[in-house]
Amino acid sequence: MPELSELLASLPRLKLVAFLEGCKEAEFGTIAELCDLNKSTLSKAMTVLEDAGYVSVRKGYLGRRPKTWLALSDYGRRAYREHQAALAALTQTARENVVSMQPPAR
């Protein structure tokens, strides 16, 4: 059975990785808004995932404004997909086992 990722047990980190799975790269403020995360929470999630190698961070400017862009690394993408597979496997295990444990219908 695939393994669940401990790093993705946190909802803000899971939201960030799931969002980044859907795009090549995204700007920090856009992620915060669309994932409904405050910037402090997103920053903490970003740091943990960057340290783990799940996310890459690129800093630059848009005009004169400093901006930060995030992207899911190949390692992070693989970990997220394994996490999804582990969740699906747990769901399938329940489907296969709980049905046989239910009392007979009256």
Explain this structure:
The chain is 56% helix and 17% strand. With 106 residues, it is an alpha+beta fold. It has a 3-stranded antiparallel β-sheet. Strand 2 and strand 3 (65-72) form a beta hairpin. The chain is elongated, with a radius of gyration of 18 Å. It starts with 10 loop residues before the first helix and ends in a 5-residue tail after the last helix. 19% of the residues are buried.
Main β-sheet description:
3 strands, antiparallel
Derived from helix and strand composition plus strand pairing, the structural class reads alpha+beta
Q: Number of helix segments?
A: 4
> What is the end-to-end distance?
36 Å
Order of helices and strands: HEHHEEH
Give the overall silhouette. Answer: elongated
Fraction of residues in helix: 55-70%
Proportion of beta-strand residues: 15-25%
* Beta strands, count: 3
Low-confidence stretches: none
Radius of gyration: 18 Å
Residue-averaged pLDDT = 93
Question: What distinguishing features does this structure have?
Answer:
106 residues; alpha+beta; three-stranded antiparallel beta sheet; 4 helices; 3 strands
Give a topology summary.
Layout: H1 11-21, E1 26-27, H2 28-34, H3 39-51, E2 55-62, E3 65-72, H4 74-101
Quick take:
By secondary structure, the chain is α+β, with helices and mostly antiparallel strands. Helices cover 56% and strands 17% of the residues.
